[in-house]
Amino acid sequence: MKVGLFIPCYINQLYPQVGKATLELLERLNVDVMYPLGQTCCGQPMANSGYEYESVGSCNNFVSNFKDFDYIVTPSGSCAYHVKKHYDIIPQTDDVVKVRENVYELCDFILNVLKVKNVGAKFPYKVGIHKSCHGLRGLRLGSCSEKVTEAYSYIGELLKEVSGTEVIELTRADECCGFGGTFAVTEEAISVKMGKDRIKDHLDNGVEVITATDTSCLMHLEGLVTRNKQPLKILHIAEILNSVN
Amino acid sequence: MSHSKAATIFNKDEKKVNWHDKALWFVRHKRDKSAHSVKGWEELRNLGHGIKAHTLSNLDTYLIQFEENAIKNGVQVHWAADADEHNKIVQSILKAHNAKKVVKSKSMLTEECHLNPFLEANDIEVIDTDLGERIVQLAKEPPSHIVLPAIHKKKEEVDVLFQEHLGTKPCDGDPQYLTGEARKHLREKFIQADAAITGVNFAVADTGGFVVCTNEGNADMGVHLAPVHIACMGIEKLIPKQEHLGVFLRLLGRSATGQHITTYSSHFKKPRNGAKMHIVIVDNGRTEQLSRPDFRASLHCIRCGACMNTCPIYRRSGGHSYDSTIPGPIGSILSPGKDLKKHSTLPFASTLCGSCSDVCPVKIDIHTQLYKWRQIITKETPQPFIKKTSMKMMGNIFSKPSQFDKVGKVARWSLRNLPKGMINSKPNVWGKARDLPLGPKESFEDWYKKRNKDEQ
Ligand code: SF4
Question: Which Gene Ontology terms cover its molecular function (chain B) (predicted)?
Answer without folding.
Answer: 4 iron, 4 sulfur cluster binding; metal ion binding
